[in-house]
Amino acid sequence: MASELHKRNLALETAISDSKFDDDGRPKRTGTLMTASAHIITAVIGSGVLSLAWAIAQLGWIAGPMALMIFSFITGFTSSLLADCYRCSTTGRRNYTYMEVVKSNLGEMKCKLCGLAQYVNLVGTTIGYTITASLSMVAIKRSNCFHKEGHDAGCHTSNNMYMIIFAIAEIILSQIPNFHELSGLSILAAVMSFAYSSIGLGLAIAKITERGNHVTTSLTGVAIGVDVTSTEKIWSSLQAIGNIAFAYAYSIVLVEIQDTLRSSPPENKVMKRASFVGVSITTIFYMLCGTLGYAAFGDKAPGNFLTGFGFYEPFWLVDFANMCIVVHLVGAYQVFCQPIFTTVENWCCHKWPESGFVTKRHPISFPSCGVCYVNMFRVIWRTVYVILTAVIAMLFPFFNSVIGLLGAIAFWPLTVYFPVEMYISRAKIPKFSVTWMWLQVLSWTCFIVTLLAAAGSIQGLVKDLQTYKPFSSAS
């Protein structure tokens, strides 16, 4: 009898292990440490790395690298807290999104506040990536123009056509059904991010070592004087902090990345290791790009060090670096917009379950590709979303101001506040204990930094808008 029972249990365990579904009934997840790290690197190394030379130029040799390290440590610490919240502490049930994690640990009201912060930032990030990708495409054309006409030629080019090209590519890629299908795209994007960062580093080193490259750097950054007033120095320094905060903004998609991992070994352990790998690698790149970029350009460091034309030659290498940026941002755009797509589509399916337009999938046969199932609502909604982000990018094509504002908006609530509050709730840390006190000090300090960085970025945006005519952006 015991032998028979053992055989039956063994058969049941084998059936479960061979199943194509996970414990929640969804298709078995296949993500690993490598794919999660690739997703993180894709999400983290993006527009942010391009502005770090400018950010350190505003802050100087002391405050600049120090700010990078502080944001790195805070992001790594709070990401480990957030990774532990993927499964419910009592039932072990999975939470598929950041909002579900907050709802499970902190309740409905804070879930709504989290959703507001998360989706505003996700939308803003996709707009920021549209701006950055178009600038890189324009830089390729201008680089070729400078090579032919000379470095003093204007070579002014409209950004709008390139935003449209980027949007068309994203409309096609946005039809990828869900986040789990993005691993290949993320790995490619991660490789591209290493490529253009490495090229930027190489060009910066070459510029530092070339004769006649006399630049001004200092411990405190851009000097107050003829070109910069004390007020402008303060505003630009605050905006620089926002740019650095944006460079580490990936907490908003951490849960979605963790939901791609296979269940063994435990997802939280793998995610913590992936976060450590991802944040460590990106911090090394950030430190090198920021400091070497500042050493190469000094106080005149451009807002985007690969499109600001501190580098002209070799023009083909500048072109290749900018093409890598475009390919990377094509993938990063999808990493950030998939949570938006999923949320809206799930809500609509729940709201109108009987609607064939919303729920029905139509088989379409493609030569050499087999049958693809297409949902008309998904096609139309995702296309409209990409078009809207492109139109807004055309209205506000300001790289540093937009990047700084997005970083400020996302940093405190999503990277610090919610992970800290959920940790306090799950660990049942008593109020006014030593641990509770230092966590609150961390949270409130980051809140004040966020407000100051947002103020600096808004001031920069207002200043840019004073001389800008909509839809006439040219580089």
TrEMBL record:
GO-annotated molecular function: symporter activity
Pfam family, one: Aa_trans
Transmembrane segments: 36-56, 62-83, 119-140, 160-178, 185-206, 234-255, 276-295, 315-336, 379-396, 402-420, 441-462
GO BP terms: amino acid transport
Keyword Membrane on entry: yes
Residue ranges of domain Amino acid transporter transmembrane in the record: 30-462
Keywords: Amino-acid transport, Cell membrane, Membrane, Symport, Transmembrane, Transmembrane helix, Transport
Family, per entry: Belongs to the amino acid/polyamine transporter 2 family. Amino acid/auxin permease (AAAP) (TC 2.A.18.2) subfamily.
CC per GO annotation: plasma membrane
Record localization: Cell membrane
Listed name of the protein: Amino acid transporter transmembrane domain-containing protein
Organism from which the protein derives: Citrus x changshan-huyou
